[in-house]
């Protein structure tokens, strides 16, 4: 699905180039597609928690993990998402196209609805980073398709002990 979206954006940019006056056509338009995967893991609910992050951009893969402390699973998922966007902010521009993936339905649904009944402060913090980008697509995916970030989240917990 993300490849299709990238192709649509690329075609649109090419169309813009053809539509612009020749003096402007010399401007290079760069569309960077960045994929971000985040996940959290908790030993107990609440319990020791960790976050995992995989970012794919510019032919590179960044993998990171972070210990989050003692929190509920949902708190950890929001903390992982916030941290992912904090890291992303250091690597990207607001004009980049961001594909964000998480296996937490509450995080993805809250982003789409821009509302979280019990996690309003966490969502507000997340949206301050999220809203920075002109084009961003947040997608829920099954845990088995988020294996890299999931493994990193568990590594964060295990390395803390």
From TrEMBL:
Residues 30-161 form the RNase H type-1 domain. CDD domains: RNase_HI_like. Pfam families: RNase_H. InterPro entries: RNaseH-like_sf (IPR012337), RNaseH_domain (IPR002156), RNaseH_sf (IPR036397). GO terms for molecular function: nucleic acid binding; RNA-DNA hybrid ribonuclease activity. This is Ribonuclease HI family protein. Signal peptide: none annotated.
């Amino acid at each position: 699905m993300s490849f299709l979206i990238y192709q649509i954006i690329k075609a649109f940019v090419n169309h813009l180039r053809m539509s612009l006056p020749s003096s402007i056509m010399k401007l290079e338009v760069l569309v960077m597609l960045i994929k971000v995967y985040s996940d959290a893991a908790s030993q107990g609910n609440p319990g020791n928690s960790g976050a995992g992050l995989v970012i794919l951009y510019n032919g590179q893969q960044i993998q990171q993990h972070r210990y989050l402390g003692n929190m509920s699973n949902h708190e950890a998922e929001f903390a992982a998402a916030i941290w992912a966007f904090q890291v992303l902010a250091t690597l990207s521009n607001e004009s980049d196209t961001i594909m964000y993936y998480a296996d937490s339905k509450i995080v993805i649904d809250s982003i789409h609805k821009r509302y979280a009944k019990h996690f309003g402060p966490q969502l507000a913090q997340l949206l301050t980073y999220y809203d920075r980008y002109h084009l961003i697509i947040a997608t829920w995916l099954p845990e088995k398709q988020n294996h890299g970030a999931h493994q990193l989240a568990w590594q964060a917990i295990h390395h803390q002990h």
